[in-house]
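Entry 12.
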Amino acid sequence: MNQIDLIYIQSIIGDKERVLYGENINEEYSHDELSGTESYPDVVVRVTSAEEISAIMKYAYDNNIPVTPRGAGTGLVGSSVAMEHGIMLETGLMNHVLELDEDNLTITVEPGVLLMDLAAYVEERDLFYPPDPGEKSATIGGNISTNAGGMRAVKYGVTRDYVRGLEVVLPNGTITTFGGKVVKNSTGYALKDLMVGSEGTLGIITKAVLKLLPLPQKAISLLIPFPSLEQAIRTVPLIIKSKSIPTAIEFMQREVIMDAEKYLGKKFPDNSADAYLLLKFDGNSVEEIEKSYERVAGICLEQGAIDILISDTEEREESIWKARGAFLEAIKGSTTYMDEVDVVVPRSSVNEMVEYIHNLHEKVDIRIKSFGHAGDGNLHAYILKDDLSNEEWELKMKAAMDNIYEKARELNGQVSGEHGIGYAKKSYLLESMDPVVVELMKGIKEAFDPKNILNPHKVFK
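Predicted 3D structure (tokens):
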């Protein structure tokens, strides 16, 4: 970019304080949450409307300037990093709730609305937005762009299941709409669903119509300690087959709980066992929930659970789930640097995958910590650098990742369950995917963005 480009962008925006360049670009704009992929944009534009985005995209398209969309920057695979520099469009100021339609049970929001603010807004009105990714300060636009999942996916599904309609700015600046408020839609190709999970490579989301549910009136969690990880994780398929579907099924190990205690400065309700399952049940009455969890509790005890700790007060719920939400930051704080794997395998194979990751550190001689959404097969493994030299780290980290992704392929799994591919995981996607499918994806990218200016070097290009 040059001075002429900058002046033109400033003329579109009008407010120079929303156009950052040179030394005014904060270091945070050069990376996402994991910090492993770094590159500065030439200019950051804090946009406030679809019309501003449209005008900038049209100029960028006509002048072959790369554009990177960005929400809160909480991603973990470099999806929002400006690899070709150029223009970064930051949507954080587009943070308004535009409409709550209680007749159709939908809410229409701008992409910069934070997940935690959306959840609070609808719950105050006795409504419920089920997707629950761990990072509550992520934006809805970012959640849609990565098809974020979260802990409640076992019962309620993922972000894609709650997106009814999208307003999108295409790479050439055209503003268009995919989907709407309708519940059913067999009208042509499902372009709305194609946008969900596309990581900002096909268009920029400027408005989203989201499905809501009535708010469950009661929730109870079970914290279940087991003597070993193997016993805990081998219980998960039995829980799933029991037909008593929990809202969430999480697994965790004692060492991660200890990290969270240190990070939060608070004791976890129990840290004496090697491994735990954390289950959540929700419904409209205590009796309904108890009927579900009693069957599951019996299964856990039959499989060797040490105890069944029932969390039926708000204070206990908060202490448990706040610790669970802090796992990522706690692990990050326990080492000098880390990289992460976000594999997903069929639910029937989750015990085999977890046990494989747990024992892998002995083979590759590097610390690995893991936790995850055991009920939907999405596992998070964190490879820790500690005091390794850069050379040792690169070799051992790559060996660990290669082994994990190879095992996931063997179990008919996928590279990512919810974090996406971005820049960091491209090579693993290309290794795991049928070349025919990759060519189809390239054709879709070509149809939307023939000049390849929108978020280049992401996913597969």
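Annotation: The chain has a mean pLDDT of 95. The radius of gyration is 22 Å.
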